[in-house]
Structures are given as structure tokens and as C-alpha cells.
Design brief:
Layout: H1 2-29, H2 45-54, H3 61-73, H4 87-122, H5 127-141, H6 144-158, H7 177-215, H8 218-225, H9 230-267, H10 273-282, H11 286-314
Helix pairs in contact: 1-11, 4-5, 4-7, 4-9, 5-7, 6-7, 6-9, 7-9, 8-9, 9-10, 9-11, 10-11
Length: 321
Amino acid sequence: MYRYLIRRVLSAIPLLFGLLTITFFIIRLAPGDPVSLYVQGDVDPHYAEDLRAALGLSDPLPLQYVKWLKGTLTGELGVSFSKNAEVADILLETLPNTLLLTTFALLFNFVLGIGLGIITALKRGSGIDHTVNITSLFVYSMPEFWLGLMLILGVSLQLGVLPASGMHSPLAKYLSFPEYVWDVAQHMVLPVFVLGVASAAATGRYMRGSLLEVINQDYIRTARAKGLSEVLVIGKHAMRNAMIPIITLLGLSLPFLLGGAVIVETVFAWPGMGKLTIDAIFSRDYPLIIACTMVSGVMVISGNLVADLLYALVDPRIRYD
């Protein structure tokens, strides 16, 4: 197991650097100049050239890449063009917010999706099965930005039940710790729902198909013939094998959640990595764009590695030795 883990980590390193290298060159091919953030049209051109030199943008592209590679290997992520702060400090401030949002969205996705999948599999062909399947298809087809805006208009503005945007109230720093946690939880409800509900619809479909395949196996019929209760048959015998495709889906869900977080965090003004990435792209903040890509790549690779390791826990027949 440990050898497999080390091999996977070592093989992920060139993959990550390949991703960052492609990002490095692509963002410099995009139109626009980061110096335009600091200068206006009537500014002395010599000042703009000096600023470009200070930011390292006047160097040839291969030299810029060598400098970036050297800094990355030594742990130096550079200084943000737009925020004039260390990129590492910005990431430490925003990354926990995204992890908080995506973690709860992932839990919501799998709790709801697995629950719906079990119900529809056991009630196959019933009205509940048809209703859940049609509703899941409808929810899965809705764009996240549209659903987020509709919830803001309906739940926040019309009903006034939940906050419309942000992570906490303006005066949250004056609240006690339990009140602060409750305030953040209220702000999380809508973005977590939008981020997780479409994935839950897909998870439910996968779970339904996987469980239907398992409960028709001979060993399930044998367990029922022995007089075991249906709860024990499904919970102990069927669910373990039915969860293997769902674990694969777990590794694939993380990239979709991170991609969706870019839209959801922008719609709800959630101060996380998604909103930070959008702001960095529009401001042509090269160091910040590459750093956000690196964090996303690490999270995606880690999610797939965790999914591979969970296989062995669910199915004892799988070994990585």
C-alpha cells in the first residue's frame, strides 16, 4: 500500500508541473497587459516600461519561465499583481473558505444522492422511482448560475429567509463564537445547495444502477433465503459492492465541484478560490492564476488518490501490494 502511494505521488509531480507549464504559456498568449492595472492612457510610456521591467514582464518568455520554475521549486509563488501581496498569503486566506464550501457540498451530494439511489432501487418501477428520476434529470439540467440567481431572488430577496451573498454578516466579528458559526452556516446554505444538488442527482442515478445490479446477484438471494432481514441484506451485503462505482464517482466529483465553485462563489460572492480565480483572470494576475491552478490540480490529484485507496477498504479483494 505504501509503495503504491509513493509511486502515485511521484507520478503526480510531473503531471502537475506539466499542467502549470501549459497554464504559464497560455495565460501569456491571452490578449491584454497586466500593466494596464496601474497606468492610464496619458501616463508616460517610459513609466509603463519601467513598471513592466519591475514585474519581470519585459524579459523574454523563456527567461520568464525559468525564473518562475526556479521560484516554484523553492516555494516562492511570487507577488500578486492586482493585490500587491504575497500569493502564498492570499491562498492561505481563501483556500479554507473553498475547502469549507466544497466539503459540505460533497457531503450533501453523497448523502442525498446515495439515499435517493437506494430508495429508487428498492422501489423500482413505482411512482416514487419515476418521480425521483424525472426530478433528478430536471435538476441535473439546470445551470448552476441560473439556479443560484433564482434562489437569491426567491429565498433571499422575496422571502428573506437566508442571506443572499458573502460568507458572514458585516458585523460578524462582534458576535460570540456560537453566533458566528450560525451566521456562517446560514450564508453557506444556498451555495452548498447549488453546488451539491446537481451532483447529487447524478450520484443518485449511479447508485440506483449499481444497487440494482448487485441485488440481483446469487449471494443476495442466498442471504435472503437464510432469513436475514432486508435491512441487513441491503446494508451489509449489497451496499458494500454497490459502493465501488460510487467511490469512482467520488474521485471524479472533486474536479466538478471545483469547477462549479468558480461559478457559485462568483454568484454568491463567496470569498474563496473560485472567486479569486475569476478576479485574477480578469485582472491578468499571472502569479495568482498559476497558483490557483496549482492548488486546483493538487486537490484533483488528491481526490483521485483517495478514491483509489478507498477501493481497498470497501472491497477486500482489491490490493495494491
